[in-house]
Write a structure and sequence with these properties.
The protein has 181 residues and is α/β, with parallel strands linked by helices. It has a single domain, classed as Glutaredoxin. Helices cover 39% and strands 23% of the residues. The chain is built from five helices and eight strands, in the order H-E-E-E-E-H-E-H-E-H-E-E-H. The strands form two sheets. Strands 1-8-7-4-5-6 form a six-stranded mixed sheet. A two-stranded antiparallel ribbon has the order 2-3. Helix 1 packs antiparallel against helix 5. The radius of gyration is 17 Å and the shape is globular. The two termini are 27 Å apart. 34% of the residues are buried. This is Thiol:disulfide interchange protein. Pfam families: Redoxin (PF08534). Its main location: other. GO terms for molecular function: disulfide oxidoreductase activity.
């Protein structure tokens, strides 16, 4: 029995390393700048708010792969990537995957977020905000936009600093690799 447990533990540890290697192997094109880790990083708990003022956290998405995007209404690269995040959520979102967008900083009122989303036809993404920047600080976000890939276990497995086209075949391959794992 002890031999079985040792073998099982060794195989499980090897599977975790293989997951990181698989993500690295599928990064192509615009996804090449995606930083991935040999071992997933734990995510500190934090809260963010919806347009009605209710608090949410990543626990709301337990068991799903999450693409967590920090953005601002005043940030041109953030605004530019939002339609591709919307398209990604429309295509892949569901029981296994969710794009979570959080407008960070006090200049991102629910009214400004709603106005931008409505004007741009952003209809598949949640309208979350973080007026105090606490969520961004908890995630070590220093500039915008930043997108963080979180695995089903709630750990960070990748990070894109700067804007990206998230509805490209290369981006979908990265997301689908995480979903299948």
């Amino acid at each position: 029995m002890l031999r079985f447990l040792v073998l099982y533990t060794a195989l499980a540890l090897g599977a975790n390393v293989a997951q990181a290697a698989d993500l690295t192997a599928v990064k192509e094109g615009q996804m090449e700048p995606l930083v991935t880790y040999e071992k997933p990083l734990p995510v500190q708990p934090f809260v963010f708010t919806d347009e009605e003022g209710a608090e949410h956290s990543l626990k709301d998405y337990e068991g799903k792969v999450v693409l967590l995007n920090f953005w601002a209404t005043w940030c041109p690269p953030c605004r530019e990537e939002m339609p591709s995040l919307n398209a990604l959520q429309s295509e892949l979102g569901g029981d296994d995957f969710q794009v979570v967008t959080i407008a960070t900083g006090g200049a991102n009122s629910p009214r400004k977020i709603a106005s931008f989303f409505d004007k741009e036809g952003i209809d598949a993404l949640p309208r979350f905000h973080d007026d105090t920047n606490m969520a961004a600080r908890a995630m070590g976000v220093l500039g915008l936009p930043v997108s963080v890939l979180i695995d089903r276990d709630g750990n960070e497995v990748g990070r894109m600093i700067g804007g990206a086209e998230w509805d490209t075949p290369e981006a979908k391959t990265v997301i689908e690799t995480l979903i299948k794992d």
